[in-house]
Amino acid sequence: MRTRFPPSPTGFLHVGSLRTALMNHLLSKQTKGSFLMRIEDTDRERLVPGAVENMLKGLAWAGIIPDEGVMLDKNGEVIQKGTHGPYFQSERLDLYRKYADELVAKGHAYHCFCTPERLAEMRKDQEARKQAPMYDRLCLKLSKAEVEAKLGSGDATVSERHVIRMKVPHEKTITFNDDIRGDMRFQGHTVDDQVLLKGDGFPTYHLAHVVDDHLMETDLVIRGEEWLSSLPKHLLLFEWLGWTPPRYAHVPLLLSKDRKKLSKRDGDVAVEEYITKGYLPEVMVNFLALLGWNPGTTQELFTMEELIEQFSLERVQKAGAIFDPEKLDWLQGQWMRKIPVKEFAARILPTVAEKFPAANSDHDFTKKAALIQERITFFHEAPEMLKWFYEEPHVSVELLANEKQKVTAAQLPEIFDALTKILTDVSEKEWTAEGIKTAVMGNLGSFKQGQLLWPLRAALTGLPYSPGAFEVAEALGREKAMERLKAAVAIIS
Length: 493
Description:
Blueprint: E1 2-5, H1 15-30, E2 34-37, H2 51-61, E3 68-72, E4 78-81, H3 93-105, E5 109-112, H4 116-128, H5 144-151, E6 163-166, E7 173-178, E8 182-187, E9 195-197, H6 205-215, E10 220-224, H7 231-240, E11 247-251, E12 254-255, H8 271-277, H9 281-289, H10 304-310, E13 321-322, H11 325-338, H12 341-355, H13 365-372, H14 382-390, H15 397-400, H16 412-424, H17 433-441, H18 449-461, H19 469-476, H20 478-492
Parallel strand pairs: 1-2, 2-3, 10-11, 12-13
Antiparallel strand pairs: 3-4, 5-6, 6-9, 7-8
Helix pairs in contact: 1-10, 6-7, 9-11, 12-13, 12-14, 16-18, 16-20, 17-19, 18-19
């Protein structure tokens, strides 16, 4: 199966666009087919420099590499690859003009000379009458002679500025079976006479994508449900040009938690922002695949390979999909746990060493990294979570006392006296997490477990959160742990 991702370079790569690209990628790989990318750059006024590179880098980060079309080389330069190229629509204008003229010759399209001012006034009147905004077909009433006169008999220097519109048969019913929505019916009288070729000679999306998807032999078009209203226009164009349309699948919109269309107001929507924040590509792929798709099982963590094997349009829902940042963060944490500990240590080492150079020569760094892997969400959190290994902690009475654990400031001297006696009796040989646990838990006395463990952990790390007290004590070693216990006693004395 040949699928495609055809973004317009008018801004950043949106998370919704990445989800669409992912679905196309999954189905092409599942069927041993090809995934191609073309750039729909016909809206010249909205082009953003660097947008193409940004989108390609975002796709590459997610592990989605086009088999054909526009892509990046090893130096990050945009290149084109494929048998049908070029894949920039702005380089195919003669092709679109050819098919627009063919539609006019067949009577399926016509020239429109209405000015922007007249069209604006027409829409204003329609809105006042609570009518759907549609072209009133004024120029369809022009005689052949009037059209030729306005066109200057083929002389471009005297031709009035105009567009080419499709002529929708109002009496026709257009039917189609969408891969997600099922059977669909559209009445011709509800479909506008869409502009196909603009006054500047550039095609609109409607004509360009139909021509390209035919010539590029696209088998399946996956796009957002906002294009559903345009589907009858596209089906008519395929019919008029004598081509078989591809399959279409209109995926549900991404919604915010209040069930409104996801926008910048709801938080980050650019893929680049999630990359900058430190989200793993595996997480974003996993998360986006589950937005609108139900695997039919309780499985929530999916690798790209598993998604290729299991994804299907049959299990994509019609309703909007909620973009839940909390679920995204949960998945981030789950994927952090899946990283082999040696790889995890290697990935956080540069960040930790940047703040604490001693980490570079720390032979026990992997062991220390393992202590925080169950608690970390982003790699950039590692220096803060490991700083107690490389610098003396800042400890205060306020930190050592804890209302939730029922530890008051008045109790601290008695608590630390008990801790000192217990840990002094633990030998160097017995100084393991299990050995320390046995000693402390066997000598709680009148204290509850939390009343000893919270102050111990806080004294050793200087943090309100960290790995467990026994693991921390073992990792620091007996000598360093006892030094910090003594320092805490001095603070409360």
